[in-house]
Specification:
Layout (H helix, E strand, L loop, with lengths): L2 H8 L8 H8 L9 E5 L5 H14 L7 E5 L2 H19 L2 H6 L5 E3 H12 L10 E3 L1 H15 L11 H14 L3 H8 L7 H18 L1 E3 H11 L3 H8 L4 E4 L7 H10 L6 E5 L13 H6 L9 E5 L1 E2 L4 H12 L10 E2 L8 E7 H17 L7 E5 L6 H9 L4 E4 L8 H14 L4 H8 L7 H13 L3 H7 L7 H14 L8 H17 L3 H15 L5 H10 L6 H4 L9 E5 L8 E6 L16 H15 L2 E14 L10 E3 L15 E4 L20 H8 L1
Parallel strand pairs: 1-7, 1-8, 2-3, 2-6, 4-5, 6-7, 9-10, 11-16, 11-18, 12-14, 12-15, 13-14, 15-16
Antiparallel strand pairs: 16-17
Bound molecules: adenosine-5'-triphosphate.
The site of adenosine-5'-triphosphate has 18 residues, from helix 3.
InterPro entries: DExx_box_DNA_helicase_dom_sf, DNA_helicase_UvrD-like_C, DNA_helicase_UvrD/REP, P-loop_NTPase, UvrD-like_ATP-bd
Enzyme class: isomerase
GO molecular function, one term: hydrolase activity
């Protein structure tokens, strides 16, 4: 043990907490107590407190195998368990490490649901070998159902497959009737009510016939499971404590599951910030957190955390002022004891090019002063907003990673390999099968359908596949595929050997299909490295579908781990993180709020919270950039090629005192005329045309 560790062993971790944090951590004295809601503002140590509570429970003798911890991502869960383990070791010594390893029920709602469903599948008539479809696979299956029903070909345009899936998903997650969902969220599709209903029935049948569950099913089936009193009692009885982070982003199904797990709230702790609720578009229900205290009798204990440890008082004052304009929510006035810093800067620049230039110069200047690139982040509302910046960063040789853009697993070659594994795992998975079989030259949709029909009814898929006849020109490669299927299916190759075998089989197809096979092959090797961290094929396929790695290697060429790089992130993906310096791109109406989300006051409020999340990621310095002019793509040569934008409505004039307002003249803009005050016009419809 190092001296540092030995020293720390003497101090009680509880003493490093403020009184409110401590009250939340020791609620119930380490035993099973009534329900607890920790309402915590941004940067007040929400995660910090939950980690301490976890460690405190373990230290107080709770059985870690009987603790269920649910977080927003698998990484967040792993990080919390690691930190709790470290804390427990501080006071209990190395035995705590062994104990904390027992915290195996830690992950996302979806992952925990998948695990329980596999266990309880036989009890609810589900095939335990089910595979899980990601959103894209689900959309493909929806397309097949749409085709089967013949709704797509008529004279009026039927909603696209992704819209159909969004409607379906919304109805399922919000537990709302279809007509209500159509009326509130998809009014332009309301005329298709009857067709959509039939479509969803067909989609559900197709999923069941293929033994696949989509993301929504993981919650829906889990919720269904919990409606059976006997099973609910059995599952609830497996846990003494249930801890939930980011409660503001749960939906009705999730809160229903929690209430069924802990009907009187005993042992239940939820933590969240209603001001950071940013997932309503996925049916997250901010009312879950607002109504939590009264869902129980006696009422839940509420602890409010208001001391912010992250940001300077100036940044916090501006963020408080922005969220203070919202109408509903728990009142929290965050305070910071950190030394004063500069006010956040509201930088008006001429156009997007100037915006990009300002960021590059700021970032490099800060690095000169010793601030690492990875301590700096650029945040934006929508993934494609960073396009011009990415181009310039590459040109200036400034390394960066981007979160929230194209996912590693969405790359075609990675999907091909995963689909192969999924078909091996579940030969009834038609979407995966359709993709894989058509990789083989000479096999088209018709043959693929025949093969999949054969597999669907087969008692022995290996035999069935060997007996299939395919067109002569496909035969040689078909035999290779059959050999692979028979080799990998029994699971004797070991893991990740099975994935390696699939990759080797796939390589000739990769070469044939893609000019840039080399970097794609590197991605597949990377996938193998990731796979090695999972116990077996089932675990891997489940977890990777539920919590995909977001490496964007094919987009931006991520720097090596030990290198320094700037962080580019959508605001959604920046959730829970912090940086010393933050730039927020496009602080204009149409971008923040997004002009796709300004229909209702609920939508506007969600956009305001999103802006609040962005602002509160900054520790020392914050810049919101307001470009005044945007280039309009795809116009005729003679058209007006720019639109003028106005400052985001979330910083009205009365809040300007919280900002240092700067008009940044930039070299490239010298030719640009200075805009007189009031010369900007808000042309929302033209903005829409720009992003359309
Ligand atoms: N009692 C404390 N003493 C010192 N530092 C603290 C304390 N509590 C939290 N912090 C620090 O404050 C920062 C914010 O904590 P944390 O990320 O847990 O906040 P959060 O409430 O989860 O934030 P957000 O919801 O905005 O993502 C972290 O750097 C954390 O280490």
């Amino acid at each position: 043990m190092t001296t540092a560790t030995a020293l720390r062993t003497d101090s009680d971790p509880l003493e490093r907490l403020n009184p409110a944090q401590r009250a939340a951590v020791v609620h119930g004295g380490g035993g099973v107590a009534g329900p607890l809601l920790v309402i915590a503002g941004a940067g007040t140590g929400k995660t910090h407190t939950l980690v301490h509570r976890l460690a405190h429970l373990v230290r107080s003798g709770a059985d870690p195998r009987r603790i269920l911890l649910m977080t927003f991502s698998r990484r967040a869960a792993a990080e919390m368990v690691r930190r709790a383990e470290r804390l427990a070791v501080e006071t209990m010594g190395p035995t705590a490490e062994v104990l904390a390893r027992g915290l195996t029920w830690a992950g996302t709602f979806h992952a925990m649901g998948a695990r329980l469903l596999r266990e309880y599948a036989p009890a609810i008539g589900l095939d335990p070998g089910f595979t899980i479809h990601d959103r894209e696979d689900s959309a493909d299956l929806m397309a097949l159902a749409r085709h089967r029903l013949g709704v797509a070909g008529g004279p009026r345009r039927f909603p696209a497959k992704s819209t159909c899936l969004a409607i379906y998903s919304r109805a399922v997650n919000a537990r709302a009737p279809l007509d209500e969902v159509l009326r509130d969220a998809f009014p332009w599709c309301a005329e298709w009510h009857g067709e959509l209903k039939s479509l969803f029935a067909t989609y559900v049948e197709a999923k069941q016939a293929s033994a696949v569950l989509d993301y929504d099913d993981l919650l829906l089936y889990w919720h269904g499971l919990m409606q059976e009193a006997g099973l609910a009692a059995e599952i609830g009885g497996r846990f003494d404590h249930v801890l939930v982070d980011e409660y503001q982003d749960t939906n009705r199904l999730q809160s229903g599951i929690l209430l069924a797990l802990r009907p009187n709230g005993d042992g239940l702790t939820v933590v969240g910030d209603d001001a950071q609720s940013i997932y309503a578009f996925r049916a997250a229900e901010v009312r879950n957190i607002l109504d939590f205290p009264d869902a129980f009798s006696p009422r839940a204990t509420v602890v409010t955390l208001e001391q912010n440890y992250r940001s300077t008082p100036e940044i916090l004052a501006a963020a408080n002022a922005v969220i203070g304009e919202a109408t509903e929510g728990f009142r929290k006035e965050l305070r910071s004891d950190r030394p004063a810093g500069p006010r956040p800067r509201l930088a008006t620049v001429w156009d997007e090019a100037c915006q990009v230039d300002l960021i590059c110069r700021d970032v490099l200047a800060a690095r000169e002063e010793g601030l690492a690139l990875r301590e700096q982040a650029v945040l934006f509302r929508t993934a494609h907003h960073s396009g011009p910046l990415e181009v310039e960063l590459v040109r200036r040789n400034i390394p960066f990673v981007k979160f929230g853009g194209l996912k590693f697993l969405d790359a075609a070659h990675v999907k091909d390999v995963l689909a192969t594994l999924r078909l091996v795992q579940n030969p009834r998975d038609r979407v995966s099968g359709f993709r894989v079989l058509q990789l083989i030259p000479g096999i088209g949709a018709a043959t693929a359908t025949t093969v999949l029909d054969t597999l669907a009814d087969a008692a022995d898929p290996d035999e069935a596949l060997s007996a299939v006849r395919v067109p002569a020109r496909a035969n040689a490669q078909w035999q290779e595929f059959v050999a692979l299927f028979r080799q990998v299916r029994p699971g004797k190759l070991g893991w990740p050997g099975e994935l390696e075998a699939v990759r080797q089989w796939y390589e000739p197809h990769l070469e044939r299909r893609h000019d840039d096979a080399a970097p794609r092959r590197a991605d597949l090797l990377q996938l193998e490295a990731i796979a090695a961290g999972f116990g077996d094929r089932t675990r891997f396929l489940t977890e990777i579908t539920l919590d995909p790695p977001s490496a964007t290697s094919d987009e931006s060429g991520p720097p090596h781990r030990d290198e320094d790089y700037l962080i580019l992130s959508t605001i959604h993906s920046a959730k829970g993180q912090e940086w010393r310096r933050v730039h927020v791109l496009n602080g204009v109406d149409g971008c923040i709020p997004s002009d796709l989300a300004t229909g209702t006051s609920a939508e506007i409020n969600e956009e305001r919270r999103l802006f609040y999340v962005a602002m509160t990621r900054a520790r020392d310095e914050l810049t919101v950039i307001v470009p005044q002019r945007f280039y309009v793509h795809g116009q005729s040569k003679r058209g007006d090629r720019h639109v003028y934008a106005s400052r985001t409505r979330f910083i009205p004039d009365r809040l300007l005192g919280h900002f240092e307002v700067a008009r940044i003249p930039v070299a490239t803009a010298t030719a640009a005329p200075a805009l007189a005050t009031g010369a900007t016009v808000d042309l929302a419809s033209r903005m829409r045309a720009m992003w359309g």
